[in-house]
Amino acid sequence: MARLGTKKNPAIVRVQTEARATEVASAFEEGGWKFILGIEPDKSENITDLEKLLNPTLPTTAQKTGRNDPCPCNSGKKYKKCCGAV
């Protein structure tokens, strides 16, 4: 699947007023993202795609346990002699 905000997968946003539409459109243009903007006064605002683009989730990283470090299971042994034994 294409990344959000690209030509193949544009962000879809719904707002209630023309003023809010120009505000949201300027945020998309500033980020260089492709979008589809709908103005529907009778429906609630939906800007979740914009929020995803403005606040992307970052992958978590964990430090690798060295073979000679103490085992994370708290056994008191070296990792290579405990949980890291193959």
Notes on the structure:
This protein has 86 residues and is of the alpha+beta class. It has a domain at 1-56. Helix content is 24%, strand content 12%. The protein has two helices and two strands. Strands 1-2 form a two-stranded parallel sheet. The longest helix is centred in the first third of the chain and has 14 residues, at 18-31. The two termini are 38 Å apart. The mean pLDDT is 94.
Order of neighbouring strands in the sheet with most strands: 1-2
Tell me the total number of β-strands: 2
Put simply, the count of helices is 2
Please bin the fraction of helical residues. Answer: 10-25%
The arrangement of helices and strands along the chain is EHEH
The structural class is: alpha+beta
Task: Tell me the quaternary state.
Answer: single chain
Shape: rod-shaped
Distance between the termini: 38 Å
C-alpha Rg (nearest Å): 24 Å
The biggest sheet amounts to: 2 strands, parallel
Q: What is the average of the pLDDT values?
A: 94
Strand % is: 5-15%
Low-pLDDT residue spans:
none
